[in-house]
Amino acid sequence: MLPPRRSLAIAACAVLVLPMLAGCDTDTASSTKPTPKAVVTTDAGAAEASRAAAEAEASRQAEATKQAEAKASQDAAATREAQAEASRAAAEASRAAKEEADRVAAEASRQAEASQQVEQDSSSSQSDHRIAPFVGGGRSSSSGRGGHAYYSSCKEARAAGAAPLHRGDPGYRSKLDRDGDGIACE
């Protein structure tokens, strides 16, 4: 058997819990029993309300779908437009780079041609100076070597581009011709 304290505690709990349970059943039973007319009206009203709610939900979903499709088409159009713009920009950049490369190549070609022309002119003028003393029987005009000149040494004559000097050339002196053959600063 149970000790007297436990049985007393169980009895007290039963006394408190039973009236509460009895009161719950009574209130619940009286409030949930509707009249047959109310049930029919409530069922019809509930069916109408659920149908209206379903239609409203369907229309909301249809509207949301339309908005999503419109947004998707706008996004697709924006993407196509951005791709077209990027392609145009790339083509423009490519064209500009090609024009710049062509311009640089043309400039380099012009500079190379100009330097080649200068080189040819200078080499032809040097060959003219070398050939000129022999053309006139060893004598050249004063304009061929730049007029009257005086060179104190062969080093100066070479620096001026006049070496070798032949007898009769401006700047020729017997002092510069060491071996006496008529050609100084050999």
TrEMBL record:
PROSITE patterns in the record: PROKAR_LIPOPROTEIN
- Residue span of region Disordered: 27-186
Stretches of Low complexity bias are at 44-94, 106-126
- Residues making up the signal peptide according to the UniProt record: 1-22
Determine if ATP-binding is one of this entry's keywords. no
Q: Which InterPro entries match?
A: Excalibur_Ca-bd_domain
User: What range(s) does the Excalibur calcium-binding domain occupy?
Assistant: 150-186
Q: Where is the composition biased (Gly residues)?
A: 135-147
Q: Could you tell me which SMART domains the record lists for this protein?
A: Excalibur
Keyword Signal carried by entry: yes
Q: Where is the composition biased (Basic and acidic residues)?
A: 95-105, 166-186
The organism's place on the tree of life at top rank: Bacteria
Q: Which UniProt keywords apply?
A: Signal
Quote the protein name from its UniProt record: Excalibur calcium-binding domain-containing protein
Q: Which organism is it from?
A: Actinomyces timonensis
Show the taxonomic lineage. Answer: Bacteria, Bacillati, Actinomycetota, Actinomycetes, Actinomycetales
